[in-house]
């Protein structure tokens, strides 16, 4: 249960305590738990102690007993019913203890878990957050689709049209003048094909590279670092066999890709460092986090509100929107003059475990 917010009301302290319903609920919880603790503890202790005594009575009794003040006496060995009753008491004691604990837990949730209005307000805030993140996610996907269409139209499509025309011209030249007449056109077609392949790689670079699926976040981020114009050191602190969910990997890869792109374009940095690790701190939904940190020694001054999903999800705000859609988070520390440190957390099993 989260700690209740501190509220300050005007008036004396005793007046605030008398009028604050939470204080009365706390006092009621203390009274109920104290009573249950005494009664439940006595009951469990009595069952356990009596059960052990009845169980071992037949073992300890040997038919003779020394009574106080030296008076001789005898003790008859108990029958089989007494040990059986002892075993039954020992078996009943754990369920009784669990039942008493369950009553205490429910009492704590009812009296300490906040009023109904507070729970409803928390649920409303959660619904509003989910509505906003869903809208941002839909906008992000639509903007990403438009970006891919635009890049394909402006790059590979034009290259392929040019390649088709050059191959047609080379075919006619080959029919009319032989191989020598078609050699220059074939060379130009080969150049256009290579350029089209490069454009396709550029378009697909920010989507989901095959190396991420095949070899994981370590190899994918290392490939990003190798292609970056700024020297990048990569540190991944979990073994490859312990991989997060594919959705978490994809989001983390996109964050690193966007951060390194911004570093190369704006930071004027001489070196960057990418760190990825698993952290056991609980997020909004609980569970482990896939943590990442991208830092550089550039000029700083990064603005978290610099981009939105409307422009394709670029910029730090676009990263924050993508992370918020899966209950992740983003923090940016970039004072003027640098350095810049971007940290993000993604739930380890978002979208389902691998």
Nutshell version of this structure?
With 354 residues, this protein is α+β, with helices and mostly antiparallel strands.
Taken in chain order, the helices and strands follow as HHEEHHHHHHEHEEHEE
**Low-pLDDT residue spans:** 282-286, 306-314
* Share of β-strand residues: 5-15%
| CATH topology group of the largest domain | Heat Shock Protein 90
Q: Specify Rg, calculated over alpha carbons.
A: 36 Å
Going by CATH, the homologous superfamily of the largest domain would be Histidine kinase-like ATPase, C-terminal domain
CATH architecture of the largest domain: 2-Layer Sandwich
Q: Provide the CATH top-level class of the largest domain.
A: Alpha Beta
Please report the total strand number as a whole number: 7
Mean pLDDT, to the nearest integer, reads 78
Distance between the termini: 30 Å
Q: Report strand order across the widest sheet.
A: 3-4-5-7-6
Largest sheet: 5 strands, mixed
Task: Please estimate the helix content.
Answer: 55-70%
Protein structure class: alpha+beta
Count of structural domains: 3
Tally the helices: what do you get? 10
Backbone shape? elongated
Describe the structure.
It contains ten helices and seven strands. It has 354 residues and is α+β, with helices and mostly antiparallel strands. It folds into three domains: 13-114; 155-205; 210-347, 2-Layer Sandwich (Heat Shock Protein 90), CATH 3.30.565.10. The chain has a five-stranded mixed β-sheet, with helices on one face. It has a two-stranded antiparallel ribbon with strand order 1-2.
């Amino acid at each position: 249960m989260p700690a209740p917010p501190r509220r300050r009301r005007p008036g004396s302290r005793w007046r605030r305590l008398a009028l604050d319903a939470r204080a009365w609920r706390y006092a009621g919880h203390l009274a109920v738990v104290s009573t249950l603790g005494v009664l439940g503890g006595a009951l469990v202790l009595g069952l356990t102690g009596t059960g052990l005594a009845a169980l071992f009575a037949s073992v300890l009794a040997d038919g003779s007993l020394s009574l106080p003040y030296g008076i001789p006496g005898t003790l008859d060995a108990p029958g089989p019913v007494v040990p059986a009753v002892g075993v039954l008491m020992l078996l009943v004691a754990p369920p009784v203890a669990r039942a008493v604990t369950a009553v205490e837990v429910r009492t704590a949730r009812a009296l300490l878990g906040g009023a109904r209005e507070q729970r409803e307000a928390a649920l409303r805030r959660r619904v509003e957050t989910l509505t906003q993140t869903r809208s941002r996610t839909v906008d992000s996907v639509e903007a990403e689709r438009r970006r891919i269409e635009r890049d394909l139209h402006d790059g590979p499509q034009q290259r392929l049209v040019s390649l088709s025309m050059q191959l047609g011209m080379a075919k006619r030249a080959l029919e009319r003048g032989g191989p020598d007449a078609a050699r220059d056109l074939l060379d130009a077609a080969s150049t256009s094909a290579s350029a089209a392949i490069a454009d396709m790689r550029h378009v697909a670079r920010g989507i989901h590279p095959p190396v991420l699926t095949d070899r994981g976040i370590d190899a994918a981020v290392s490939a990003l670092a190798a292609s970056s114009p700024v020297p990048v050191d990569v540190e991944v602190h979990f073994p490859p066999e312990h991989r997060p969910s594919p959705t978490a990997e994809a989001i983390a890869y996109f964050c690193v890709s966007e951060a390194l792109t911004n570093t190369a374009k704006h930071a004027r940095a001489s070196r960057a460092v990418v760190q990825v690790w698993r952290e056991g701190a609980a997020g909004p939904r609980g569970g482990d986090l896939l943590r990442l940190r991208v830092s550089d020694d550039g000029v700083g001054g990064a603005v978290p509100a610099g981009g939105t999903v409307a422009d394709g999800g670029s910029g730090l705000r676009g990263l924050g929107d993508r992370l918020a859609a899966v209950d992740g988070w983003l923090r940016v520390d970039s004072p003027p003059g640098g350095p810049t440190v971007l940290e993000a957390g993604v739930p380890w099993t978002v979208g389902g475990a691998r």
